[in-house]
Amino acid sequence: MKIDIFSHFMPEKYLKALRDKARTDADVSELGQWVDSNPALTQVDMRLRVMERYPDVLQVLTMATPPLETVVGESDAIELARLGNDEMARLVSTYPNRFVAAVACLPLSDVAESMQETERAITKLNFRGIQVFTNINGEGLNEPKFRPLLEMMARYDLPIWIHPWDLPQSTVSPHSRQWLKGPHVLHGLRWPFETSVTMVRLVESGVFEEFPGIKFITHHCGGMIPFFGDRIGGAPGLKNFYNDTALYGSTPALMCGLAWFGCDKILFGTDMPLGASKSGSYGRTLDTIESIQRMDISEGDREKIFSGNARRLLKLLM
User: Fold this and answer.
1) In this predicted structure, which of 113-117, 268-272, 279-283 has the lowest mean pLDDT?
2) CB neighbours (10 Å) of residue 54?
3) Arithmetic mean of pLDDT, 45-67
4) 238 to each of 35, 64, 207, how far by Cα in Å?
5) Pick the CATH number of 2-313 from 3.90.1150.10, 3.40.190.10, 3.40.50.40, 3.20.20.140
């Protein structure tokens, strides 16, 4: 069994509402560029057909980008978060042999409402954590206003998924603004950078001292931290993060992540159905599986990465 802990989905009902309620100043071009061209991201039947290729893989559903606060107003974000979470809960209930759990989408522009939705998602919908972003309209997760939400998740003893997101263009220089519009290769560098900066800021804010049991899961195996960790000071707190394996098939990169974080902090995650696959299918599921199989580790450690760590961290009874 394998548990994909960072698998993206966007229910069609949620997508329609997101488009209908988008602010006039919101850039929703991304929705047309990759959402419409990737039916496995929004259509359940297509998703299930793709998953048939990997019968031993279960998925934890996380809401696909963009973050709500970048597209809709605060009141609409609250409504859409509830709608999206209800739709995700329905999928988990309907297809338990495919979707083992879901992660809450939040209206992060309103911390109090985010906490209410977190409580509902965990206690009523049985969600296994929440998803946040490396910045919330330009504000970092280390800002004091987000501390109550982090404290709540520490009390629930469930993880916080951190998804990278670019800073708003209004907060960067004109030169950087041009860079932010660069080709995909630059996009692939920006997000690991944003993840790394967020991790450092969280550590420096004292979050692990204040909430010793708090758990974060980073996308793309901790961004640049495993490679540059010692160069930036090797702060012990940087080893506290949990991290997925969405490195698009690179075994050397996974071994670097393993050397920094240790086997207990690495969890199978694919970014499915995103990423152009070498095999021509949706996403990098097969490439990721094969990259883990090539790792020079024991079978016991491989089992931890594929499913054991996820079962423990998400408290999955299976």
Assistant:
1) 279-283
2) 17
3) 96
4) 33, 26, 11
5) 3.20.20.140
